[in-house]
Amino acid sequence: MLETASAADRVHWAREKFGDGLILTTSFGIQAAVMLHLITRIIPKIPVVFIDTGYHFPETYRFADELTQRLDLNLKVYRAPLSPAEQEAKFGRLWEKGLEGLERYNFMNKVEPMDRAVRELGATAWLAGLRRQQASTREDLPVVQVQNRITKIYPIIDWHSRDVHRYLVKHD
């Protein structure tokens, strides 16, 4: 049923099924405005989780501020317990230390903060803006999947770049 549903209908379904256990994640990338606008029109006060690695581009932080104000986001920012400066002082640039270093960096800066966000917010499901067209590894993703005991819903999974562009233009 969800495979042929519209993005908005998928969001309505998620709201009905998961209620207060639903969160939205964002990277504040250029296309993030689509998901943020789409979801908050249907679920205005949904917790919006942003994992701040401390290494985002200045434009990302400015875009985050702009969208937070414009869309009145219920933004929840999560970071690693150690600042980027502390991490580099103690461990060096982990992402430059091969696969093991990269895995440690990702765990410290992405996985642990996201796990904490899920626990603290009591999340049972999250909405994310993955699209099949973005990568060959996403081509077979379903609209809904369970991963690590949490349900992930991808409302715009079947959108193409032109759909994203049209939405952005339509909603300014």
Question: What do you see in this structure?
Answer:
There is one protein chain. By secondary structure, this protein is α/β, with parallel strands linked by helices. The chain contains six helices and six strands. The protein has helices at 7-18, 32-42, 58-71, 84-91, 98-121, 161-170; strands at residues 22-26, 47-51, 74-78, 125-127, 144-147, 150-153. A six-stranded mixed β-sheet has the order 3-2-1-4-6-5. Strand 2 (47-51), helix 3 (58-71) and strand 3 (74-78) form a beta-alpha-beta unit. The longest helix is centred in the middle third of the chain and has 24 residues, at 98-121. The radius of gyration is 17 Å and the shape is globular.
Order of adjacent strands in the largest pleated sheet: 3-2-1-4-6-5
Intertermini distance = 30 Å
Q: Approximately how much helix is present in the residues?
A: 40-55%
* Tally of alpha and pi helices: 6
Which descriptor suits the 3D outline?
Answer: globular
**Segments where pLDDT lies below 50 for 5+ residues?**
none
Beta-sheet strand percentage?
Answer: 15-25%
Helix and strand composition category: alpha/beta
Mean pLDDT: 94
**How are helices and strands ordered from N to C?**
HEHEHEHHEEEH
The biggest sheet amounts to: 6 strands, mixed
Main attributes of the structure:
6 strands, 172 residues, alpha/beta, six-stranded mixed beta sheet, globular, single chain
TL;DR of this structure?
The protein is of the alpha/beta class and 172 residues long. It is 46% helix and 15% strand.
